[in-house]
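agent> step 3/5: call structure_predict on target 'non-specific serine/threonine protein kinase' (Culicoides sonorensis).
agent> reason: downstream docking stage needs a structural representation; sequence fetched in step 2, passing through unchanged.
tool.input:
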Amino acid sequence: MTAIDWNRECQIIKKIGEGTFASVYICKRKSNGQKVVMKSISLSDCSFLLSTVQREYSIFSQVRHARLIECFGFYQCHKSWNFILEYAPNGTLGDKIHGLQRAGSDAAMSQNEILDIFTDILVGVKYLHFRSIIHRDLKPDNILFDKDGRAKIVDFGISKIYEQMHNNNGDLHEMTKIGTPFYMAPEILNHETYGFKCDVWSLGVMFFEMCELRHPFGEKGTLDLFDLSLPFKVPQIDTKKRRFHPAMNKICEMMIVREPDKRVDLHQVVNHHLIRNKFCTVFFEK
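tool.output (status=ok):
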């Protein structure tokens, strides 16, 4: 983190997003005209968010990778905490999926495009796991596209360093408030012990959604995942209609497994024959 006075340096251009606890703005740096993003979190009515802000700041200060959105700075102003982030001008994966949904039944991503995006995400998650960080909120809206159309991961508000993961008794309650259950692994939703494989589940859900442009569990979402007595079957990608390799289904089946001890780890996903070469190319990029 630099010693720049970001409060004076940033000129807000426009608001581009607003959630329950945060607002997001495109800003311009006064010194050089560079576009950046300001994520502003209000702590006035939500004191429990303080630990979330501190955690996100801690994670950002420990990581730097081409497949992660970079944090340039952080400052407190009145009752808000503000992150200054890299600007990614080409929207989110969620935007891309919703745009294709609106375009009609014939709209789809190609297999190569899906694997390219997914590999970028895998490389970012692999780096986080190497640093003992579990993201815990991987979803299409947290995948941004930079000026070159490359995918980058953002939002470390509920990420956790593995060794510290179970030290906070309020951790799961906090995640319920600010996380996204539709993409969270069953073991998290069931308040069970979990580890790095919870990110693998989220990756599987996103992979299916890129292929079929819908959530794998439809309107029911994740409700049935709570009840382990109910039968569980991974929805199938229509590989024939999409003109995909049949093994695209195998990738989903590896990751969307309800029991974490039967779910593959990230290393096994990376070594799938449709992914391995792409992963090596992206992983060793300068």
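agent> step 4/5: record observation. The domain at 6-86 is CATH 3.30.200.20 (Phosphorylase Kinase; domain 1).
agent> proceeding.
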